[in-house]
Amino acid sequence: MLTTGVIPSLHVDYKHSRIKQYHKEGQALRTETTINDTRDFGAGKSLKNLPALRQIGFTANRRLLDVQTITQDCALGEAALRQVTAPVMVEGQRAAGLRYADPRVQALLSALLGFMLLVRGFTNRQLRERVAGLLGQATESLTAGRMTYDLRRLRLHGLIQRVPHSHRYRLTKRGMQVALFFTRTYARVLRPVLAQIVPPEWDHSTHLRCAFDKLLTSIDQFITEAKLAA
After folding, report:
1. Are 37 and 130 contained in the same domain?
2. Is 124:112 a contact under the CB 8 Å cutoff?
3. Where are the alpha helices (H) located in the chain, listed in sequence order?
4. Measuring CA to CA, how many Å separate 140 from each of 1, 2, 147, 150?
5. Structural domain contains residue 194
6. What is the pLDDT of residues 141-166, one digit of tens each?
7. Is residue 150 part of a domain?
8. Are 169 and 155 in contact (CB under 8 A)?
9. Which domain holds residue 141?
10. Do residues 164 and 205 both lie within one domain?
């Protein structure tokens, strides 16, 4: 919640470390990472590890800023949209497309957004639990094999990448953009608009429905007059 006269700040905690973001002197946005225990990232405490720790801090800052940038601008072009919804072939491996309005795809992408800021990424099990919950199913009903198929689809479409030497995955920058675009437009545009323009009980109840009905009437009138003219 934002309060007039109070400068907002953002805090992201990971074990003993923290990212803090705030407006310095009310003007410039400042993002700083504080590492209080180097062992949180598998590094020692000697000074020779300082360059590695600087890189870890810089990467954390950049990742947060990338997420915020994509959140504000998640538009996709037609070509990019087709690359996601159509099947792809990558190094001899074929993956099915991710259909925009498919409930399973929407659940997958919504679940992925919950892992955006995880440093270590996520596992098959973690994704299964979230997807099952979004679909209203028990985790046991969603097999590990089925989730492996979905992970493969997401990876070949470039939406996730495997964390090296592990069975964990991380959302890519492209994946964040696609997931935000798909879930936001579906939840905020497609569903509420269709709910107004399709059911008969919404007749003359909203400005959008009245405008849509007027458009259909005008089209029908145009067709009728065109037939009479012919």
Report:
1. no
2. no
3. 50-72, 78-85, 103-113, 124-135, 144-156, 173-185, 191-197, 207-229
4. 38, 41, 12, 16
5. no
6. 999 999 999 999 999 999 999 999 99
7. yes
8. yes
9. 78-186
10. no
Within a domain: residue 192?
A: no
Q: Which residue has the tokens 């700040």?
A: 9
For 1-49, how does the pLDDT look when each residue is reduced to its tens digit (9 = 90+)? 566 667 788 888 888 888 888 887 767 788 888 888 888 888 888 888 8
Residue pLDDT, tens place only, 96-142: 999 998 999 999 999 999 998 888 899 999 999 999 999 999 999 99
Q: Are residues 95 and 154 in the same domain?
A: yes
Q: What is the DSSP letter of 140?
A: G
Q: Which residues touch 166 (CB under 8 Å, ≥6 apart)? A: 121
Q: What are phi and psi of 40, to 5 degrees?
A: -60, -25
Q: In the block, which residue shows the tokens 């608009």?
A: 193
Picking from 114, 122, 205, the residue whose alpha carbon sits closest to that of residue 162 is 122
Beta bridge partners of 18: 13, 34
Q: What is the CATH number of the domain that holds 85?
A: 1.10.10
User: What is the rounded CA–CA span in Å between residue 11 and residue 3?
Assistant: 17
147 & 97 share domain: yes
